[in-house]
């Protein structure tokens, strides 16, 4: 019997986010007759429990720092003990804390860039340091994966030596199936059945712009008072979001909720999904919403613009003047149920044809197999 390829999948955190959802889909869809996955997370959280519940061996070595040299020997000992054939690092923090150990043990590293750690709005010194950090990681990884064409081009713009393979994120269409029976989230959260439900599912961080969304929604209520906003997630701007909702006297119109595991049920309850990010790699949350037939409003940024065709399967808004642009898009879409239906139908077709988890996994399995062959013949 041929020996299985043991793959160590590494992720920065145990909380649920885009990269974490990608990892979950990947390990759930890997061909277990050929591959034996084990996961290393650098924080604990609900994703770790989810992985364990589906039978994936999962370990935690705690650090919230990239390039945390104090953990490198511990990571090396863990990798040696696991006797892995390939390491797949998802994101900057994960790769920065496994790369030294992997290279010292002569184990090939696949690095998936789920959006770059450098961004236009950063302090120039911070941005320069992060570009150098990414240059170090990408030049020393055995194979780099970009999750979108624009993600790849951004890398080439700032890192002259950068090279990668594009593998689009994919959605598990067995899990995100709009034809499946779902629980009534509106009834659970006491959201009126006759109101247009606008949904945000993401981390409450500045790059996802939850506070701008709250302000935009408040402006749009004057045009369409029959709307309700449900925001699902956690993060460092959550407390400020709570205060803002109270200050605007909108507790009866905006519901804030922590992350949930029943994302398909939550999506099924919504009419419109909004993702107002300042940047993206290839947003999995947006793909999940579209696979559930939701009309989407999203910012016109890298990755997102490869999924959403403006006024075809959703609406794209510019990040300059974001609050006004979001409000205007909401005014247009929330008052036109035919447009909501049409965009939702086209959204499903977009994901089914171009962003399927099965296709994504087969592409990554091919990379793993080719790396093992090249290592054996080296």
Q: Count of DSSP E strands?
A: 13
Overall tally of domains:
2
What is the H/E order? EHEHEHEHEHEHEHEHEHEHEHEEHHH
Structural class: alpha/beta
Largest sheet report: 7 strands, parallel
The third-level CATH topology of the largest domain is Rossmann fold
Estimate percent helicity. Answer: 40-55%
Radius of gyration: 21 Å
CATH superfamily caption of the largest domain? Glycogen Phosphorylase B
Per CATH, which architecture of the largest domain? 3-Layer(aba) Sandwich
Describe the fold and architecture:
- The chain has 378 residues and is of the alpha/beta class.
- The protein has two domains: 5-170 and 356-376, Rossmann fold (3-Layer(aba) Sandwich); 185-354, Glycogen Phosphorylase B (Rossmann fold).
- Helices cover 43% and strands 16% of the residues.
- The chain contains 14 helices and 13 strands.
- The strands form two sheets. It has a seven-stranded parallel sheet, with helices on both faces. Strands 10-9-8-11-12-13 form a six-stranded parallel sheet, with helices on both faces.
- The two termini are 23 Å apart.
- The mean pLDDT is 94.
Write a concise keyword list for the protein shown above.
16% strand; 13 strands; globular; 14 helices; Rossmann fold; 378 residues; six-stranded parallel beta sheet; alpha/beta; seven-stranded parallel beta sheet
Write the layout of secondary structure elements.
Layout: E1 5-11, H1 18-29, E2 35-41, H2 46-53, E3 57-60, H3 72-82, E4 86-90, H4 92-104, E5 109-113, H5 124-140, E6 143-146, H6 149-158, E7 165-166, H7 185-189, E8 196-201, H8 210-220, E9 227-232, H9 238-247, E10 254-257, H10 263-269, E11 272-275, H11 284-291, E12 295-299, E13 315-317, H12 322-334, H13 337-354, H14 357-376
Parallel strand pairs: 1-2, 1-4, 2-3, 4-5, 5-6, 6-7, 8-9, 8-11, 9-10, 11-12, 12-13
Helix pairs in contact: 3-4, 4-5, 8-9, 8-12, 11-13
